[in-house]
């Protein structure tokens, strides 16, 4: 009569273990000692921000685009010092994006493949105006799970004039003379407002012409200023210069590394 | 929306060669609504020492009264003018006394000491002083200002250059900061006079 007690003991133990595991699972899903806000904070987030800033300036017959090459995690941990945020899509379209680096890469891939298909279908390169509209629609297509990026599209339009298009994450588009996006946007934009937009100058004063050289030096100045104060911006300036009727020039310039 | 940006407002100070400039905008709001368009956030403490108070303006008023009270007491007891360094230490102590229930205002001190050496400093709400040699900015437009100032500030500027740099900086800031605006007031403090200029800016 005593030979079966061992088996029931094992069965009880297994059952107990299963119940314990179940209880652990439940408490992990709804921890009673944490406030709802704490639970919210610990939940997995599909987005992250890798910092960095980008900027674009357009002129009569040129457009220049720049970004820094630093990639950070939590604003203090440097993941790499040569992450590229600028993509030369063709001879007259340059895309620059900052924000969530995963989406930066995905957006670049999507546009590249759409441009590839366009080239195959129409046997010519896409113009920057078309690409601007395409990008806007691609961003809005993901209205309720957006690409977490601030995109700027720059290039030379069909009339040989410089063009800069600025976007918000869900595809609101605007053609501007100059634009910036990313962590140091609030530091760069007012400086360009002052130097290119001349918003602080009263009427009747002579406004200096925006030449390519002036645009490049303003770009360098604004990034040096931003790198001085904004910690996720630094390491190198990746500068891309597009001039009407000339090949695209790419340069790397040193920036603060601390 | 944070209490620090409830009323809006920005203050900036720059140091030059035996001169300092301190400037603020003129707007007071209640979040998105503009309440007044003539409120200076810069206040005179002595002939050569000015204090700027950005942040929640109700607290700024209270803090200003406390600052003036302590400064008056200091001048009566010591029988001499207060130095900007001393004043900033005093404000810092005042702010830290309220460590666990702080005034929602970030003070900024700018002035010349008795050897006419420029002194500028800013604090956080609990009185952590930062006194750099170049420029300081507090308020809703802080980030906009720091970016522009970084490009405009040069070593040993004379009063007129310094005024121009400060004025251009704050105007560029007001262009983008919706919580500040409606003109700016710039005080240029030199060893024998203080120049006050009110500048027109965007009215929206």
CATH architecture of the largest domain in chain A: 4-Layer Sandwich
Coarse shape of chain A: elongated
By CATH's scheme, which homologous superfamily of the largest domain in chain A applies?
Answer: Aminohydrolase, N-terminal nucleophile (Ntn) domain
In terms of quaternary structure, what is this? heterodimer
The total of beta strands of chain B comes to: 12
N-to-C span of chain A: 79 Å
Total domains of chain B = 1
Query: Approximately how much beta-strand content do the residues of chain A carry?
Result: 25-35%
Query: Which series of helices and strands of chain A comes N to C?
Result: HHEEEEEEHHEEEEHHEE
Number of helices of chain A: 6
**Major sheet summary line of chain B:** 5 strands, antiparallel
Provide mean pLDDT of chain B, rounded. Answer: 96
What's the SSE blueprint?
The complex is a heterodimer of chains A (258) and B (204).
Chain A: H1 5-29, H2 36-42, E1 53-58, E2 62-68, E3 71-73, E4 77-80, E5 86-90, E6 93-99, H3 101-122, H4 128-141, E7 149-156, E8 162-167, E9 173-176, E10 178-182, H5 185-195, H6 212-229, E11 236-243, E12 249-254
Antiparallel strand pairs in A: 1-2, 1-10, 2-11, 3-4, 5-6, 6-7, 7-8, 8-9, 11-12
Chain B: E1 10-15, E2 19-25, E3 28-30, E4 33-36, E5 42-46, E6 49-55, H1 57-78, H2 84-97, E7 105-112, E8 118-123, E9 129-130, E10 135-139, H3 142-152, H4 159-176, E11 184-190, E12 194-199
Antiparallel strand pairs in B: 1-2, 1-10, 2-11, 3-4, 5-6, 6-7, 7-8, 8-9, 11-12
Helix pairs in contact in B: 1-2, 3-4
Structure in words:
The complex is a heterodimer of chains A (258) and B (204). Chain A has 258 residues and is of the alpha+beta class. Chain A has 2 domains: 6-43; 53-254, 4-Layer Sandwich (Glutamine Phosphoribosylpyrophosphate, subunit 1, domain 1), CATH 3.60.20. Chain A contains 6 helices and 12 strands. In chain A, strands 10-1-2-11-12 form a 5-stranded antiparallel beta sheet, with helices on one face. A 5-stranded antiparallel beta sheet of chain A has the order 5-6-7-8-9, covered by helices on one side. In chain A, a hairpin with a 5-residue loop joins strand 8 and strand 9 (173-176). In chain A, helix 5 (185-195) packs antiparallel against helix 6 (212-229). The termini of chain A are far apart. The model of chain A has no long low-confidence stretch (mean pLDDT 93). Chain B is of the alpha+beta class and 204 residues long. Chain B has a single domain (3-199), classed as Aminohydrolase, N-terminal nucleophile (Ntn) domain (Glutamine Phosphoribosylpyrophosphate, subunit 1, domain 1, 4-Layer Sandwich), CATH 3.60.20. In chain B, 32% of the residues lie in helices and 32% in strands. Chain B has helices spanning 57-78, 84-97, 142-152, 159-176, and strands spanning 10-15, 19-25, 28-30, 33-36, 42-46, 49-55, 105-112, 118-123, 129-130, 135-139, 184-190, 194-199. In chain B, the strands form 3 sheets. Chain B has a 5-stranded antiparallel beta sheet, with helices on one face. In chain B, a hairpin with a 2-residue loop joins strand 5 (42-46) and strand 6. The chains are: A alpha+beta (258), B alpha+beta (204). The A-B interface holds A 184, 186-191, 193-194, 199-200, 221-222, 224-226, 228-229 and B 143-148, 150-151, 167-168, 171-173, 175-176.
């Amino acid at each position: 009569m005593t030979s079966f007690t061992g088996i029931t003991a094992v069965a009880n133990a297994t059952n107990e273990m299963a119940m314990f595991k179940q209880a652990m699972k439940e408490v992990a899903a709804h921890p009673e000692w944490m406030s709802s806000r704490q639970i919210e904070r610990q939940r997995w987030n599909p987005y992250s921000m890798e910092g960095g800033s980008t900027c674009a300036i357009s002129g009569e017959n040129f457009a220049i685009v720049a970004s820094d090459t630093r990639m950070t995690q939590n604003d203090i941990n440097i993941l790499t010092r040569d992450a590229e945020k600028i993509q030369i899509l063709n001879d007259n379209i340059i895309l620059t994006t900052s924000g969530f680096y995963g989406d930066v890469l995905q957006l670049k891939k999507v546009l590249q493949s759409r441009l590839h298909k366009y080239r195959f279908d129409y046997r010519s390169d896409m113009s920057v105006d078309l690409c601007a509209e395409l990008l806007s629609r691609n961003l809005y297509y993901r209205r309720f799970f957006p690409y977490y990026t601030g995109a700027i599209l720059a290039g030379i339009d069909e009339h040989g004039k410089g063009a800069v298009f600025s976007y918000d994450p869900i595809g609101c588009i605007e053609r501007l003379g100059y634009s910036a996006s990313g962590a140091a946007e609030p530091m760069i934009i007012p400086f360009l407002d002052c130097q290119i937009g001349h918003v602080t100058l009263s009427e009747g004063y002579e406004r200096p012409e925006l030449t390519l050289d002036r645009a490049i030096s303003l770009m360098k100045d604004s990034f040096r200023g931003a790198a001085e104060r904004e910690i996720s911006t630094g390491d190198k300036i990746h500068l891309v210069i597009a001039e009407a009727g000339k090949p695209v020039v790419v340069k790397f310039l040193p920036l603060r590394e601390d | 929306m944070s209490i620090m940006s409830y009323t809006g407002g920005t203050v900036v100070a720059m140091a030059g060669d035996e001169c300092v400039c301190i400037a603020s905008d003129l707007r007071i709001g209640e979040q998105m609504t503009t309440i007044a368009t003539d409120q200076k956030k810069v206040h005179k403490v002595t002939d050569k020492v000015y204090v700027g108070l950005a942040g929640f303006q109700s607290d700024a008023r209270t803090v200003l009264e406390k600052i003036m009270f302590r400064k008056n007491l200091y001048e009566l007891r010591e029988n001499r003018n207060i130095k900007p360094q001393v004043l900033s230490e005093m404000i810092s102590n005042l702010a830290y006394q309220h460590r666990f229930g702080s005034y929602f205002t970030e003070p900024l001190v700018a002035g010349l000491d008795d050897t006419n050496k420029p002194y500028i400093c800013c604090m956080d709400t609990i009185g952590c002083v930062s006194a750099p040699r170049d420029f300081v900015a507090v308020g809703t437009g802080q980030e906009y200002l720091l970016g522009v100032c970084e490009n405009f500030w040069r070593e040993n500027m004379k009063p007129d250059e310094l005024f121009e740099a400060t004025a251009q900086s704050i105007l560029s800031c007001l262009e983008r900061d919706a919580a500040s605006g409606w003109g700016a007031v710039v005080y240029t403090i030199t060893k024998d006079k203080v120049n006050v200029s009110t500048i027109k800016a965007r009215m929206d």
